[in-house]
Amino acid sequence: LKMSWFWLYLPLHLLIATSLCHSTKAPTTSSQQSFKTNLFNFYHSLILADGKETTVHLLKDIPKRYYFVLEEGRVLAPFSVTVTPCDVPIEWSILVYKSPPGFPAKATPGDQDTQEVSKSQKAPSMVSTIFNYKGNSVETYMGMSSHSALYLLEFLSTERDTHITVYLTTDTTSGHLYPELPTDPRIDVVGIGHTTVTLTWKHSPSVLQHRESIQYCLLVNEKHNYKSLCAAETAIRSSGMKLPPTLALSLSPYLLEPQQVMILSNSELSIINKVSSGEVRQVCTGTKNTYTVLNLSPSTQYYFDVFIVNLLTNASAAYTGTFARTLEEPEPKVTELKDGKVIHVVLDGKRQKFYSLQYQARHKKIHFTFQLCQGQIRVHITRNGKTVASENLSGLRHLSLKGKLLDTYLVQLRSTEQSNSSVKVQASPHFHKPLFPLLPESLKIKSFSKLRTCRSVTIAWLGTQEESKYCVYRKRIEEDQIWGELQSADRCSGPESRHKSEKVLCKYFYDLNLQRAVTTETIKGLQAGTFYLFDVYLFGPSGIPVRYHSKVVKTRKKC
Protein backbone atom coordinates (compact mmCIF):
# COMPACT_ATOMS: atom_id res chain seq x y z
CA LEU A 1 0.00 0.00 0.00
CA LYS A 2 1.27 3.47 -0.79
CA MET A 3 1.53 6.36 1.66
CA SER A 4 -1.17 8.98 1.16
CA TRP A 5 0.69 12.21 1.98
CA PHE A 6 -2.11 14.55 0.90
CA TRP A 7 -4.70 12.62 2.92
CA LEU A 8 -2.44 12.76 5.97
CA TYR A 9 -1.50 16.41 5.80
CA LEU A 10 -4.99 17.81 5.15
CA PRO A 11 -6.86 16.20 8.06
CA LEU A 12 -4.11 16.99 10.58
CA HIS A 13 -3.87 20.61 9.49
CA LEU A 14 -7.62 21.13 9.56
CA LEU A 15 -8.12 19.26 12.82
CA ILE A 16 -5.49 21.32 14.62
CA ALA A 17 -6.93 24.54 13.26
CA THR A 18 -10.43 23.44 14.22
CA SER A 19 -9.37 22.60 17.75
CA LEU A 20 -7.64 25.93 18.25
CA CYS A 21 -10.66 27.86 16.98
CA HIS A 22 -13.01 25.87 19.19
CA SER A 23 -10.91 26.55 22.28
CA THR A 24 -11.64 30.28 21.99
CA LYS A 25 -15.40 29.83 21.74
CA ALA A 26 -16.27 27.36 24.48
CA PRO A 27 -14.75 25.87 27.65
CA THR A 28 -12.25 23.08 26.99
CA THR A 29 -13.47 19.68 28.21
CA SER A 30 -11.10 16.86 29.32
CA SER A 31 -12.01 14.79 26.26
CA GLN A 32 -11.24 17.70 23.98
CA GLN A 33 -7.89 18.25 25.72
CA SER A 34 -7.07 14.55 25.28
CA PHE A 35 -7.93 14.82 21.61
CA LYS A 36 -5.59 17.80 21.23
CA THR A 37 -2.81 15.81 22.93
CA ASN A 38 -3.29 12.93 20.48
CA LEU A 39 -3.18 15.32 17.56
CA PHE A 40 0.01 16.85 18.94
CA ASN A 41 1.57 13.37 19.23
CA PHE A 42 0.71 12.55 15.64
CA TYR A 43 2.01 15.85 14.39
CA HIS A 44 5.37 15.48 16.19
CA SER A 45 6.10 11.91 15.07
CA LEU A 46 8.38 10.43 12.42
CA ILE A 47 7.10 8.49 9.47
CA LEU A 48 7.85 4.74 9.57
CA ALA A 49 9.23 3.30 6.34
CA ASP A 50 7.22 0.52 4.72
CA GLY A 51 9.03 -2.73 3.84
CA LYS A 52 12.27 -1.79 5.59
CA GLU A 53 13.71 -2.64 9.01
CA THR A 54 14.25 0.57 10.99
CA THR A 55 16.63 0.93 13.95
CA VAL A 56 15.16 3.11 16.70
CA HIS A 57 17.32 4.53 19.53
CA LEU A 58 15.46 5.18 22.79
CA LEU A 59 16.48 7.42 25.68
CA LYS A 60 15.38 6.42 29.16
CA ASP A 61 11.85 7.63 30.05
CA ILE A 62 11.51 9.60 26.80
CA PRO A 63 8.87 8.15 24.45
CA LYS A 64 9.51 8.03 20.73
CA ARG A 65 6.73 7.93 18.16
CA TYR A 66 6.44 6.84 14.54
CA TYR A 67 3.38 6.84 12.30
CA PHE A 68 2.22 5.28 9.07
CA VAL A 69 -0.91 5.64 6.93
CA LEU A 70 -2.99 3.07 5.10
CA GLU A 71 -4.31 4.35 1.76
CA GLU A 72 -7.98 5.05 1.21
CA GLY A 73 -9.81 2.99 -1.36
CA ARG A 74 -8.53 -0.49 -0.42
CA VAL A 75 -10.85 -3.00 1.24
CA LEU A 76 -9.44 -5.10 4.13
CA ALA A 77 -5.85 -3.92 3.72
CA PRO A 78 -3.47 -6.18 5.74
CA PHE A 79 -0.35 -4.97 7.53
CA SER A 80 2.07 -6.21 10.19
CA VAL A 81 4.50 -4.59 12.64
CA THR A 82 7.45 -6.54 14.17
CA VAL A 83 9.42 -5.03 17.06
CA THR A 84 12.73 -6.53 18.27
CA PRO A 85 14.15 -5.24 21.58
CA CYS A 86 17.96 -5.34 21.51
CA ASP A 87 18.59 -5.10 25.24
CA VAL A 88 16.25 -4.30 28.12
CA PRO A 89 12.45 -4.75 28.14
CA ILE A 90 10.51 -1.92 26.54
CA GLU A 91 6.90 -0.76 26.35
CA TRP A 92 5.29 -0.20 23.00
CA SER A 93 1.78 0.34 21.72
CA ILE A 94 -0.17 1.01 18.50
CA LEU A 95 -2.82 3.74 18.37
CA VAL A 96 -5.14 4.26 15.42
CA TYR A 97 -6.94 7.39 14.25
CA LYS A 98 -9.82 6.70 11.90
CA SER A 99 -11.22 9.63 9.90
CA PRO A 100 -14.93 10.29 10.73
CA PRO A 101 -17.31 9.80 7.80
CA GLY A 102 -17.51 12.94 5.70
CA PHE A 103 -14.57 14.62 7.45
CA PRO A 104 -13.01 16.95 6.47
CA ALA A 105 -16.11 18.54 4.85
CA LYS A 106 -16.73 21.93 3.44
CA ALA A 107 -18.42 24.38 5.82
CA THR A 108 -21.73 25.95 4.73
CA PRO A 109 -22.25 29.69 5.27
CA GLY A 110 -23.54 30.46 8.73
CA ASP A 111 -22.94 26.98 10.12
CA GLN A 112 -19.16 27.02 10.35
CA ASP A 113 -18.97 27.31 14.16
CA THR A 114 -21.55 24.58 14.66
CA GLN A 115 -19.69 22.18 12.38
CA GLU A 116 -16.38 22.83 14.08
CA VAL A 117 -17.85 22.16 17.53
CA SER A 118 -19.65 18.99 16.51
CA LYS A 119 -16.62 17.48 14.79
CA SER A 120 -14.28 18.27 17.63
CA GLN A 121 -16.68 16.53 20.01
CA LYS A 122 -16.95 13.43 17.84
CA ALA A 123 -13.23 13.10 17.24
CA PRO A 124 -12.17 11.65 20.64
CA SER A 125 -14.08 8.44 19.97
CA MET A 126 -12.05 7.90 16.75
CA VAL A 127 -8.65 7.51 18.53
CA SER A 128 -8.06 4.11 20.15
CA THR A 129 -5.25 1.84 21.30
CA ILE A 130 -5.33 -1.46 19.43
CA PHE A 131 -2.19 -3.10 20.84
CA ASN A 132 0.27 -2.70 23.71
CA TYR A 133 3.14 -4.84 25.00
CA LYS A 134 5.86 -4.74 27.67
CA GLY A 135 8.87 -7.06 27.62
CA ASN A 136 12.00 -8.00 25.67
CA SER A 137 10.58 -10.66 23.35
CA VAL A 138 10.24 -10.24 19.61
CA GLU A 139 6.56 -9.40 19.02
CA THR A 140 4.57 -9.11 15.81
CA TYR A 141 1.18 -7.42 15.46
CA MET A 142 -0.87 -8.32 12.39
CA GLY A 143 -3.84 -6.13 11.55
CA MET A 144 -6.45 -5.51 8.89
CA SER A 145 -7.82 -2.10 8.00
CA SER A 146 -11.13 -1.71 6.18
CA HIS A 147 -10.77 2.03 5.43
CA SER A 148 -8.29 4.89 5.59
CA ALA A 149 -6.48 5.12 8.93
CA LEU A 150 -3.46 6.74 10.50
CA TYR A 151 -1.46 4.61 12.94
CA LEU A 152 0.85 5.82 15.69
CA LEU A 153 3.55 3.59 17.25
CA GLU A 154 4.86 4.69 20.63
CA PHE A 155 8.02 3.20 22.22
CA LEU A 156 9.32 3.74 25.77
CA SER A 157 12.29 2.39 27.74
CA THR A 158 12.06 2.84 31.52
CA GLU A 159 15.30 1.03 32.48
CA ARG A 160 18.06 2.69 30.44
CA ASP A 161 19.01 3.97 27.00
CA THR A 162 18.62 1.23 24.43
CA HIS A 163 17.78 0.52 20.82
CA ILE A 164 15.26 -1.63 18.97
CA THR A 165 14.43 -2.59 15.40
CA VAL A 166 10.98 -2.08 13.86
CA TYR A 167 9.71 -3.67 10.65
CA LEU A 168 6.48 -2.52 9.00
CA THR A 169 5.06 -4.15 5.90
CA THR A 170 1.82 -3.67 4.00
CA ASP A 171 2.77 -6.24 1.38
CA THR A 172 2.13 -9.72 2.74
CA THR A 173 2.19 -11.50 -0.61
CA SER A 174 5.80 -11.09 -1.81
CA GLY A 175 7.52 -13.15 0.89
CA HIS A 176 8.86 -12.48 4.37
CA LEU A 177 11.81 -10.41 5.54
CA TYR A 178 12.39 -12.79 8.45
CA PRO A 179 13.19 -16.47 7.90
CA GLU A 180 10.41 -18.85 8.92
CA LEU A 181 10.59 -20.98 12.04
CA PRO A 182 9.36 -24.58 12.07
CA THR A 183 6.08 -25.40 13.82
CA ASP A 184 8.16 -26.75 16.71
CA PRO A 185 10.98 -24.18 17.28
CA ARG A 186 12.51 -25.89 20.30
CA ILE A 187 16.19 -26.90 20.57
CA ASP A 188 16.74 -30.48 21.74
CA VAL A 189 19.72 -31.51 23.86
CA VAL A 190 20.63 -35.01 22.64
CA GLY A 191 23.98 -35.51 24.38
CA ILE A 192 25.83 -34.18 27.42
CA GLY A 193 29.45 -34.88 28.37
CA HIS A 194 31.99 -33.42 30.74
CA THR A 195 33.09 -30.79 28.19
CA THR A 196 30.60 -31.23 25.32
CA VAL A 197 26.90 -30.72 24.58
CA THR A 198 25.21 -31.98 21.41
CA LEU A 199 22.19 -30.08 20.11
CA THR A 200 19.68 -30.61 17.32
CA TRP A 201 16.72 -28.61 16.02
CA LYS A 202 14.09 -28.94 13.31
CA HIS A 203 14.80 -27.40 9.91
CA SER A 204 13.37 -24.02 9.01
CA PRO A 205 11.12 -24.03 5.90
CA SER A 206 13.30 -21.16 4.63
CA VAL A 207 16.33 -23.49 4.43
CA LEU A 208 14.53 -25.74 1.96
CA GLN A 209 13.48 -22.77 -0.20
CA HIS A 210 16.61 -20.57 -0.04
CA ARG A 211 19.49 -22.85 0.92
CA GLU A 212 22.16 -20.58 -0.60
CA SER A 213 21.23 -17.49 1.45
CA ILE A 214 20.08 -19.06 4.73
CA GLN A 215 22.16 -20.43 7.57
CA TYR A 216 21.91 -21.34 11.25
CA CYS A 217 23.94 -19.55 13.92
CA LEU A 218 24.39 -20.92 17.44
CA LEU A 219 25.15 -18.80 20.50
CA VAL A 220 26.60 -20.20 23.73
CA ASN A 221 26.96 -18.37 27.04
CA GLU A 222 26.80 -18.93 30.80
CA LYS A 223 24.33 -16.15 31.71
CA HIS A 224 20.94 -16.52 30.04
CA ASN A 225 19.15 -17.08 26.74
CA TYR A 226 18.83 -14.28 24.20
CA LYS A 227 15.56 -13.47 22.46
CA SER A 228 17.26 -12.13 19.32
CA LEU A 229 20.59 -11.91 17.54
CA CYS A 230 20.38 -8.16 18.06
CA ALA A 231 20.23 -8.68 21.84
CA ALA A 232 23.24 -11.00 21.74
CA GLU A 233 25.37 -8.47 19.91
CA THR A 234 24.38 -5.76 22.38
CA ALA A 235 25.50 -7.99 25.25
CA ILE A 236 28.86 -8.55 23.57
CA ARG A 237 29.45 -4.85 23.04
CA SER A 238 28.40 -3.94 26.58
CA SER A 239 30.83 -6.52 28.00
CA GLY A 240 33.73 -4.35 26.82
CA MET A 241 34.97 -6.72 24.09
CA LYS A 242 36.60 -4.98 21.14
CA LEU A 243 35.09 -5.89 17.79
CA PRO A 244 37.53 -5.91 14.86
CA PRO A 245 36.75 -4.15 11.58
CA THR A 246 33.59 -5.47 9.99
CA LEU A 247 33.54 -7.58 6.87
CA ALA A 248 31.12 -7.48 3.99
CA LEU A 249 28.17 -9.85 4.01
CA SER A 250 29.40 -11.37 0.77
CA LEU A 251 32.24 -13.05 2.69
CA SER A 252 31.51 -16.73 3.06
CA PRO A 253 31.25 -17.83 6.71
CA TYR A 254 33.12 -21.00 5.82
CA LEU A 255 36.31 -18.93 5.30
CA LEU A 256 36.48 -18.11 8.99
CA GLU A 257 39.18 -19.56 11.19
CA PRO A 258 38.01 -22.33 13.56
CA GLN A 259 38.80 -20.16 16.60
CA GLN A 260 36.63 -17.31 15.28
CA VAL A 261 32.91 -16.63 15.47
CA MET A 262 30.74 -14.07 13.77
CA ILE A 263 27.93 -11.75 14.77
CA LEU A 264 25.47 -10.53 12.15
CA SER A 265 23.66 -7.27 12.80
CA ASN A 266 22.96 -3.94 11.14
CA SER A 267 23.87 -5.34 7.70
CA GLU A 268 27.42 -6.14 8.81
CA LEU A 269 29.35 -9.32 9.46
CA SER A 270 31.61 -8.91 12.49
CA ILE A 271 34.33 -11.37 13.45
CA ILE A 272 35.30 -11.87 17.08
CA ASN A 273 37.46 -14.44 18.81
CA LYS A 274 35.90 -17.00 21.08
CA VAL A 275 36.29 -16.06 24.70
CA SER A 276 35.78 -17.66 28.04
CA SER A 277 34.58 -16.20 31.36
CA GLY A 278 30.93 -16.30 30.40
CA GLU A 279 31.03 -14.11 27.31
CA VAL A 280 28.84 -14.83 24.30
CA ARG A 281 30.44 -16.96 21.61
CA GLN A 282 28.85 -17.91 18.34
CA VAL A 283 29.44 -20.36 15.53
CA CYS A 284 27.47 -20.55 12.30
CA THR A 285 26.79 -24.09 11.08
CA GLY A 286 25.55 -23.43 7.55
CA THR A 287 22.41 -25.51 6.99
CA LYS A 288 23.35 -28.28 9.43
CA ASN A 289 20.77 -28.66 12.19
CA THR A 290 22.93 -30.77 14.53
CA TYR A 291 26.00 -29.46 16.32
CA THR A 292 28.31 -30.55 19.14
CA VAL A 293 29.70 -27.70 21.24
CA LEU A 294 33.26 -28.53 22.37
CA ASN A 295 35.71 -27.19 24.96
CA LEU A 296 33.15 -26.47 27.67
CA SER A 297 33.92 -26.53 31.39
CA PRO A 298 32.75 -29.49 33.49
CA SER A 299 29.86 -29.02 35.92
CA THR A 300 28.83 -25.70 34.31
CA GLN A 301 25.42 -24.55 33.11
CA TYR A 302 25.34 -23.18 29.57
CA TYR A 303 22.57 -21.47 27.62
CA PHE A 304 22.12 -22.23 23.92
CA ASP A 305 20.30 -20.15 21.29
CA VAL A 306 19.85 -20.94 17.60
CA PHE A 307 19.03 -18.26 15.03
CA ILE A 308 18.05 -18.75 11.41
CA VAL A 309 19.71 -15.93 9.45
CA ASN A 310 19.01 -14.57 5.97
CA LEU A 311 22.42 -13.47 4.65
CA LEU A 312 20.85 -11.29 1.94
CA THR A 313 18.61 -9.21 4.21
CA ASN A 314 20.47 -9.81 7.51
CA ALA A 315 17.13 -10.57 9.14
CA SER A 316 16.95 -13.40 11.66
CA ALA A 317 14.46 -15.41 13.68
CA ALA A 318 15.09 -17.05 17.03
CA TYR A 319 14.40 -20.63 18.02
CA THR A 320 13.27 -21.25 21.60
CA GLY A 321 16.48 -21.23 23.63
CA THR A 322 17.50 -24.06 25.92
CA PHE A 323 20.11 -24.78 28.59
CA ALA A 324 22.14 -27.73 29.82
CA ARG A 325 24.66 -28.47 32.55
CA THR A 326 27.81 -30.36 31.65
CA LEU A 327 28.65 -33.43 33.68
CA GLU A 328 30.81 -33.20 36.76
CA GLU A 329 34.40 -34.16 36.19
CA PRO A 330 35.10 -37.42 37.98
CA GLU A 331 37.37 -37.22 40.96
CA PRO A 332 40.92 -37.95 39.82
CA LYS A 333 42.13 -41.36 40.84
CA VAL A 334 44.77 -41.10 43.55
CA THR A 335 47.55 -43.73 43.58
CA GLU A 336 49.37 -44.47 46.81
CA LEU A 337 53.15 -44.10 46.80
CA LYS A 338 55.04 -46.59 48.94
CA ASP A 339 58.54 -46.17 50.35
CA GLY A 340 61.17 -46.87 47.71
CA LYS A 341 58.72 -48.17 45.11
CA VAL A 342 59.04 -46.76 41.58
CA ILE A 343 55.80 -45.96 39.68
CA HIS A 344 55.77 -45.39 35.92
CA VAL A 345 53.09 -42.82 34.94
CA VAL A 346 51.91 -42.24 31.35
CA LEU A 347 50.05 -38.94 30.78
CA ASP A 348 47.60 -38.15 27.96
CA GLY A 349 48.67 -34.84 26.43
CA LYS A 350 45.35 -34.28 24.63
CA ARG A 351 43.21 -34.39 27.79
CA GLN A 352 45.58 -32.18 29.84
CA LYS A 353 44.46 -33.79 33.09
CA PHE A 354 46.36 -34.20 36.33
CA TYR A 355 47.53 -37.60 37.54
CA SER A 356 47.61 -37.73 41.33
CA LEU A 357 49.91 -39.65 43.66
CA GLN A 358 49.63 -39.61 47.46
CA TYR A 359 52.34 -40.33 50.01
CA GLN A 360 52.09 -40.34 53.82
CA ALA A 361 55.39 -39.51 55.49
CA ARG A 362 56.76 -41.81 58.16
CA HIS A 363 59.83 -39.64 58.61
CA LYS A 364 60.38 -35.90 58.80
CA LYS A 365 62.59 -35.81 55.69
CA ILE A 366 61.20 -37.09 52.38
CA HIS A 367 63.06 -37.56 49.11
CA PHE A 368 61.13 -37.47 45.78
CA THR A 369 62.79 -38.58 42.53
CA PHE A 370 61.35 -37.93 39.06
CA GLN A 371 62.83 -39.44 35.91
CA LEU A 372 61.33 -37.84 32.79
CA CYS A 373 60.92 -40.53 30.15
CA GLN A 374 59.10 -38.75 27.30
CA GLY A 375 57.61 -35.38 26.51
CA GLN A 376 57.31 -32.45 28.90
CA ILE A 377 55.73 -32.70 32.36
CA ARG A 378 54.86 -30.26 35.13
CA VAL A 379 54.84 -31.45 38.74
CA HIS A 380 52.93 -29.85 41.61
CA ILE A 381 53.44 -31.05 45.19
CA THR A 382 51.34 -30.08 48.20
CA ARG A 383 51.84 -30.97 51.85
CA ASN A 384 48.62 -31.04 53.89
CA GLY A 385 46.99 -28.91 51.19
CA LYS A 386 49.74 -26.27 50.92
CA THR A 387 52.02 -26.01 47.89
CA VAL A 388 55.65 -26.88 48.60
CA ALA A 389 56.98 -27.37 45.03
CA SER A 390 55.85 -26.64 41.46
CA GLU A 391 58.09 -26.85 38.38
CA ASN A 392 58.64 -28.36 34.94
CA LEU A 393 60.63 -31.60 34.95
CA SER A 394 63.80 -32.15 32.97
CA GLY A 395 65.84 -35.35 32.92
CA LEU A 396 66.29 -36.74 36.44
CA ARG A 397 65.10 -34.50 39.29
CA HIS A 398 65.58 -34.99 43.03
CA LEU A 399 63.48 -33.03 45.54
CA SER A 400 64.16 -33.18 49.29
CA LEU A 401 61.40 -31.89 51.58
CA LYS A 402 61.26 -31.57 55.36
CA GLY A 403 58.04 -31.75 57.35
CA LYS A 404 56.43 -33.63 60.20
CA LEU A 405 55.57 -37.25 60.85
CA LEU A 406 52.38 -38.43 59.09
CA ASP A 407 52.32 -35.41 56.76
CA THR A 408 50.29 -36.13 53.62
CA TYR A 409 51.95 -35.26 50.31
CA LEU A 410 49.93 -35.01 47.08
CA VAL A 411 51.95 -35.18 43.86
CA GLN A 412 50.11 -33.99 40.72
CA LEU A 413 51.58 -34.56 37.25
CA ARG A 414 50.38 -33.05 33.96
CA SER A 415 51.68 -33.18 30.39
CA THR A 416 52.46 -29.72 29.03
CA GLU A 417 52.34 -30.71 25.35
CA GLN A 418 49.80 -32.35 23.05
CA SER A 419 51.64 -35.66 22.72
CA ASN A 420 51.79 -38.26 25.46
CA SER A 421 54.40 -37.90 28.20
CA SER A 422 55.71 -40.35 30.79
CA VAL A 423 57.71 -40.21 34.01
CA LYS A 424 58.99 -42.51 36.74
CA VAL A 425 58.35 -41.44 40.32
CA GLN A 426 59.86 -42.62 43.59
CA ALA A 427 59.31 -41.44 47.19
CA SER A 428 61.41 -42.56 50.13
CA PRO A 429 62.77 -41.32 53.48
CA HIS A 430 65.74 -39.02 52.99
CA PHE A 431 68.24 -41.47 54.44
CA HIS A 432 66.99 -44.35 52.28
CA LYS A 433 69.44 -45.39 49.55
CA PRO A 434 67.91 -44.16 46.26
CA LEU A 435 67.15 -46.66 43.53
CA PHE A 436 68.31 -44.29 40.81
CA PRO A 437 72.03 -43.98 40.21
CA LEU A 438 74.10 -40.93 41.00
CA LEU A 439 74.08 -38.76 37.89
CA PRO A 440 76.82 -36.68 36.25
CA GLU A 441 76.42 -32.96 35.67
CA SER A 442 75.33 -33.58 32.09
CA LEU A 443 73.73 -36.50 30.24
CA LYS A 444 74.90 -35.33 26.82
CA ILE A 445 77.03 -37.49 24.53
CA LYS A 446 79.80 -35.66 22.68
CA SER A 447 81.32 -36.68 19.35
CA PHE A 448 84.66 -35.55 17.93
CA SER A 449 84.40 -34.41 14.34
CA LYS A 450 88.17 -34.52 13.75
CA LEU A 451 88.29 -38.13 14.92
CA ARG A 452 85.59 -39.30 12.52
CA THR A 453 86.62 -41.67 9.74
CA CYS A 454 84.78 -43.60 7.08
CA ARG A 455 84.65 -46.65 9.37
CA SER A 456 84.63 -45.24 12.92
CA VAL A 457 83.53 -42.42 15.23
CA THR A 458 84.71 -41.41 18.70
CA ILE A 459 82.23 -40.42 21.43
CA ALA A 460 82.65 -39.26 25.06
CA TRP A 461 80.40 -38.85 28.12
CA LEU A 462 80.69 -37.79 31.75
CA GLY A 463 80.80 -40.18 34.68
CA THR A 464 80.49 -39.79 38.48
CA GLN A 465 82.45 -40.41 41.68
CA GLU A 466 80.54 -43.66 42.13
CA GLU A 467 81.63 -46.76 40.24
CA SER A 468 78.87 -47.57 37.78
CA LYS A 469 78.25 -49.65 34.69
CA TYR A 470 77.92 -47.99 31.27
CA CYS A 471 76.65 -49.74 28.13
CA VAL A 472 76.91 -48.32 24.60
CA TYR A 473 74.41 -49.10 21.78
CA ARG A 474 74.36 -48.04 18.14
CA LYS A 475 71.67 -48.06 15.46
CA ARG A 476 71.90 -47.31 11.75
CA ILE A 477 69.22 -44.85 10.58
CA GLU A 478 68.26 -42.84 7.52
CA GLU A 479 68.47 -39.05 7.42
CA ASP A 480 64.68 -38.62 7.33
CA GLN A 481 64.37 -40.75 10.49
CA ILE A 482 66.57 -38.57 12.70
CA TRP A 483 63.89 -36.19 14.00
CA GLY A 484 61.40 -38.98 14.73
CA GLU A 485 63.98 -41.10 16.55
CA LEU A 486 65.09 -38.24 18.77
CA GLN A 487 61.53 -37.14 19.58
CA SER A 488 60.17 -40.60 20.37
CA ALA A 489 63.13 -41.73 22.46
CA ASP A 490 62.03 -43.13 25.83
CA ARG A 491 64.70 -42.06 28.30
CA CYS A 492 63.36 -44.52 30.89
CA SER A 493 63.59 -47.61 28.73
CA GLY A 494 66.56 -49.86 29.30
CA PRO A 495 68.71 -52.00 26.97
CA GLU A 496 66.08 -54.73 27.16
CA SER A 497 64.15 -52.81 24.51
CA ARG A 498 67.10 -52.88 22.09
CA HIS A 499 68.08 -55.55 19.59
CA LYS A 500 71.13 -57.61 20.63
CA SER A 501 72.96 -56.67 17.44
CA GLU A 502 72.86 -52.98 18.47
CA LYS A 503 74.98 -53.54 21.59
CA VAL A 504 78.60 -52.31 21.26
CA LEU A 505 80.12 -52.73 24.73
CA CYS A 506 79.69 -52.33 28.49
CA LYS A 507 82.33 -50.89 30.86
CA TYR A 508 82.79 -49.74 34.47
CA PHE A 509 84.53 -46.53 35.47
CA TYR A 510 84.52 -43.67 38.01
CA ASP A 511 86.81 -40.92 39.26
CA LEU A 512 86.80 -39.18 42.61
CA ASN A 513 87.88 -36.03 40.81
CA LEU A 514 84.81 -34.93 38.83
CA GLN A 515 87.03 -32.91 36.50
CA ARG A 516 88.52 -36.19 35.25
CA ALA A 517 85.30 -38.26 35.39
CA VAL A 518 85.00 -38.57 31.65
CA THR A 519 85.47 -41.50 29.33
CA THR A 520 85.75 -41.98 25.55
CA GLU A 521 85.08 -44.84 23.16
CA THR A 522 85.92 -45.34 19.51
CA ILE A 523 83.18 -47.31 17.72
CA LYS A 524 84.60 -49.24 14.76
CA GLY A 525 83.16 -51.40 11.99
CA LEU A 526 80.87 -48.69 10.58
CA GLN A 527 79.92 -47.91 6.97
CA ALA A 528 81.06 -44.78 5.12
CA GLY A 529 78.63 -41.86 4.69
CA THR A 530 76.07 -43.40 7.07
CA PHE A 531 74.03 -41.95 9.96
CA TYR A 532 74.23 -43.76 13.31
CA LEU A 533 72.23 -43.25 16.51
CA PHE A 534 74.33 -43.77 19.67
CA ASP A 535 72.95 -44.35 23.19
CA VAL A 536 74.67 -44.75 26.55
CA TYR A 537 72.93 -46.43 29.51
CA LEU A 538 74.06 -45.81 33.12
CA PHE A 539 73.29 -48.52 35.71
CA GLY A 540 73.27 -47.74 39.45
CA PRO A 541 73.48 -50.10 42.43
CA SER A 542 69.81 -51.08 42.10
CA GLY A 543 70.16 -51.92 38.41
CA ILE A 544 67.68 -49.22 37.25
CA PRO A 545 69.14 -47.65 34.07
CA VAL A 546 69.34 -43.99 33.10
CA ARG A 547 69.62 -43.23 29.40
CA TYR A 548 71.86 -40.43 28.18
CA HIS A 549 70.55 -38.11 25.45
CA SER A 550 70.81 -39.86 22.10
CA LYS A 551 73.49 -38.67 19.69
CA VAL A 552 73.39 -38.91 15.87
CA VAL A 553 76.74 -39.00 14.05
CA LYS A 554 77.50 -39.45 10.33
CA THR A 555 80.67 -41.20 9.17
CA ARG A 556 82.78 -39.59 6.49
CA LYS A 557 82.03 -40.43 2.85
CA LYS A 558 85.66 -40.32 1.72
CA CYS A 559 88.82 -40.90 3.67
Automatic annotation (TrEMBL):
One of its GO terms (molecular function) is heparin binding. Gene3D superfamilies: Immunoglobulins. Secretory protein that plays a role in various cellular processes. Acts as a chemorepellent acting on gonadotropin-releasing hormone (GnRH) expressing neurons regulating their migration to the hypothalamus. Also promotes neuron migration, growth and survival as well as neurite outgrowth and is involved in the development of the olfactory system. May also act through the regulation of growth factors activity and downstream signaling. Also regulates extracellular matrix assembly and cell adhesiveness. This is Protein NDNF. Residues 179-316, 437-545 form the Fibronectin type-III domain. The gene is Ndnf_0. It comes from Dicrurus megarhynchus. Keywords: Glycoprotein, Neurogenesis, Repeat, Secreted, Signal. One of its GO terms (biological process) is nervous system development. Residues 1-23 form the signal peptide. One of its GO terms (cellular component) is extracellular region. It is found in: Secreted. The keyword Repeat applies.
